[in-house]
């Protein structure tokens, strides 16, 4: 019986390409994030969240989940901490942030937008990370003494990232869907 190789063909859509491009931008920003020295371990600007906020506003929550999930997995592989405690900290923060965004996006758009979404997501992110750290890595309530520092960082970076996302949403033209002429 001769050995036959089968060719597997993946069919992609323009949506797949857009998600891949946006995830690549988020991954690039998370690599920049990792290179920025911070005074307190675990405090990062969260630049990749700017992309997640733009995706949420333009394309919806499911696409934001894809971009954020791809960022967490690919970023951890590129930075060399896949399946390490750092990976699970990042994953827990991203999951809590995405769950908060699922609620926040349903709030009245008259009062809530990219800046408030960013602040809520930043607080959810740090809450998820602190909870996981307390349950798994540092089984002592003394960990919560760091809460004021993490909260201040979440508020500051949440505002900054939200303002950047809001500005980019104003500046970037909305993409028209591609028409398939086949």
Automatic annotation (TrEMBL):
It comes from the Bacteria. Keywords: Membrane, Transmembrane, Transmembrane helix. The keyword Mitochondrion does not apply. Coiled coil: none annotated. Signal peptide: none annotated. The chain crosses the membrane at residues 47-67, 87-105, 117-137, 143-166. InterPro entries: Hpre_diP_synt_I (IPR014535), Hpre_diP_synth_I (IPR010898). This is Heptaprenyl diphosphate synthase component I.
């Amino acid at each position: 019986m001769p050995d036959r190789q089968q060719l597997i063909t993946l069919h992609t859509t323009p949506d797949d390409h857009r998600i891949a491009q946006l995830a690549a931008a988020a991954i690039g920003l998370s690599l920049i994030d990792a290179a920025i020295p911070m005074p307190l371990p675990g405090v990062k600007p969260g630049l990749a969240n700017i992309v997640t906020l733009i995706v949420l506003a333009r394309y919806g929550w499911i696409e934001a989940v894809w971009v954020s999930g791809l960022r967490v997995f690919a970023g951890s592989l590129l930075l060399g901490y896949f399946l390490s405690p750092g990976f699970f900290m990042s994953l827990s923060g991203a999951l809590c942030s995405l769950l908060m965004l699922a609620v926040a996006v349903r709030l009245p758009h008259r009062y809530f937008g990219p800046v408030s979404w960013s602040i809520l997501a930043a607080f959810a992110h740090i809450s998820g990370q602190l909870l996981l750290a307390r349950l798994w890595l540092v089984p002592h309530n003394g960990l919560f003494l760091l809460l004021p520092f993490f909260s201040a960082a979440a508020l500051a970076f949440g505002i900054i990232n939200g303002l950047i996302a809001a500005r980019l949403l104003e500046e970037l033209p909305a993409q028209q869907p591609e028409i398939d002429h086949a």
